[in-house]
Amino acid sequence: MNVMRKAISKIMRPSPRRCEEARSLMSDYLEGEIDPSAGRKLERHVRFCDRCHTVLGNLGQTLSRLRGLQGDEPDGTEADAVAARIGRGWRQRS
Ligand SMILES: [Zn+2]
User: Fold this and answer.
1) Counting Cβ atoms within 10 Å, is residue 80 exposed (0-12), middle (13-18) or buried (19+)?
2) How far is the CA of 42 from the centre of ligand 1 (A)?
3) Nearest to 21 by CA among 1, 46, 47
4) Which of 37, 41, 53, 77 could pair with 46 in a Cys bridge, judged by C-beta atoms 3.0 to 4.6 Å apart?
């Protein structure tokens, strides 16, 4: 079963290394603490990668929800803004 799952994920993900890279950048990206060129790379990736786009969207929502609970975070809307920006890019493409 494990072997099967590995095989399936290989087929489903054309560039798993890029996905891993993208995912490792996501939390920094959402925190606004990412290197600008890395941020652009991630944005480009999620436009083409449905899966990472979903992951990033969920992560952004989770983060903004957490911040909403904390209340007084000064940059509480950052994740929302990022999610909106990505959402726009995604819609433009399709
Ligand atoms: Zn990906």
Assistant:
1) middle
2) 9
3) 46
4) 53
The one-digit pLDDT tens for each residue of the chain (94 residues) are 678 777 656 555 557 888 999 999 999 999 899 999 999 999 999 998 999 999 999 999 998 888 887 665 555 566 777 777 777 665 555 5
Cβ contact 83:61 at 8 Å = yes
- Residue for token pair 């799952």: 5
The whole-number pLDDT of residue 81 equals 74
Residue owning tokens 């809307």: 77
- Give me Rg for the CA atoms of the chain: 15
Task: Please name the helix (run of DSSP H) or strand (run of DSSP E) that holds residue 19, with its range, or none.
Answer: helix 16-31
- Ligand 1 centroid–CA 78 distance in Å is 22
Q: What is the 8-class DSSP label of residue 15?
A: -
